[in-house]
Amino acid sequence: MQARARGNALIGRALYPLLTAAGFGEIYVSPRMVYVDSSKPELVEGFTKNTFTAMIEGIRQSSLDAGLMSEREFDKGVADLYRTAEADGVFCYTFFKARAVNVSSATAHREN
User: Fold this and answer.
1) What are the structural domain ranges in the chain?
2) What is the mean pLDDT of the chain?
3) Long-range contacts, stretch 20-23, CB < 8 angstroms, 24+ apart
4) How far apart are CA 112 and CA 96, in angstroms?
5) Residue 9, phi then psi, degrees to nearest 5
């Protein structure tokens, strides 16, 4: 769905070259892993169920309308996500965080 909306689902892997091409300096990109099991009930509710799974549920109709998968396949995927929130389930997700310095802005600030 992101690609169809002209988004990039893999943007995290492109952060360093994008920031470099845009002229930023002091670039630091790092993977951030979210690991959730039943020992972290606040994350089971707050992240696994109420953030990640809710986000996926929110694109159900548009995914079906786009013909990306059948209702059965989509609903099975959502059920599998909820399964990760069970007592013996595990949810793991990696995203990327970047920070960089706007070199031209930093240079202008030092000159003033």
Assistant:
1) 11-111
2) 92
3) 23/102, 23/103, 23/104
4) 34
5) -65, -15
